[in-house]
Amino acid sequence: MASVSAWPEGVPTSNKERVIEELVNGQECAKQLEILLHNWCEKNGRLSAEELVHKIFASFDHALSLLTAVESAEDSQNQATSYDDSPCCNGRSEDSTNSRKKLASKEKRGCYKRRRDEHAWTVVSSTVEDGHAWRKYGQKQILNSKHPRSYFRCPRKYDQGCRATKQVQRLEDDGSQMFQTTYIGTHTCRPDSFKAPQIIIDSEPPESYSKFSYGSSNPKMPTKKLHEITPPVKQETKEETPTTSGLTDMDSVVMWKDIIGAEYGDVASNVYTSTEITSQNLELDLVIKPVEFEDDFQFDESEFV
DNA sequence: TTTATTTGACCGAG
DNA sequence: CTCGGTCAAATAAA
After folding, report:
1. Which of A25, A67, A246, A252 has the smallest C-beta neighbourhood within 10 Å, fewest atoms?
2. Domain residues of chain A, as ranges?
3. What pLDDT score does A137 carry?
4. Is the C-beta of residue A75 closer than 7 Å to nucleic acid chain B?
5. Alpha-carbon A249 to chain mean position
6. Burial of residue A64, with CB atoms counted within 10 A of its CB: 0-12 exposed, 13-18 middle, 19 or more buried
7. Distance (Å, rounded) from C-alpha A194 to C-alpha A50?
8. Which A residues 190-229 have CB within 7 Å of strand C?
9. How far is A37 from A53, CA to CA, in rounded Å?
10. Roughly how many angstroms between the first and final C-alpha of chain A, as a whole number?
């Protein structure tokens, strides 16, 4: 593939090289980690694996920082100041339990801001499961599209101000039941610990994950809404029962499951299409495993000022 | 009961 | 104006 052909014009060559270097490094670490996980029987492997994970995170973090540094050079004026999670109303306007028409007439319910210059990339896959917890907040019929588009946001939007959203739309040729998922923004919520993977690695993947594959037959899915995709996005519930640590590790948990390659056979067929930023192309070209990585590794991106 | 999803209205951008 | 993204009341599910 034409690997670095689609670089943003403003990216200095030195940065390109550094980014590539970082990504390659991350890839290397990932490979080692994969080997480690294969030979999991060794008890000392746990520590090494954790170190590797840290290294991987660091590499991706650096690379992405470089990318965003360039990219946001222009947009930053828009973004940095105003693209906070909360529109001016800060999410809820609980004032009146009456109809919102009232609101509309008196106080303007949604003075929210549209995020145009956010990182966005598209994934075409036979599954909409990506290892993240999502909460559906809307669905729209799109012009010239057979299927409606579903809108999801991060469940921690209000907890942690995570701005990540995604839009899922079934492709026109539904013979193969492919979904096009557009991710907008990166997760700023904290996966914050690497404890979870150990638990998962040692045990079999929880069977509850099987219900995340919407493409195939899903016995638990309510039959009434079968006419269109209405992915059961109920992961949020699980997250809100942290029990021990008040922190949620779901992201890393599922991510690790992906690494291990549990029952995600179909994810391998992903196709990526970069829309704004080209880091995704880069990632593809370097053949660094699936997007789930990228999504996860951008967790505390530098955009926080 | 609480929590998640549905769905039509609202809003901003073009 | 239209279109698409978001909000939040109503509804469904657990």
Report:
1. A246
2. 116-304
3. 93
4. no
5. 14
6. buried
7. 7
8. 220, 222, 224
9. 12
10. 35
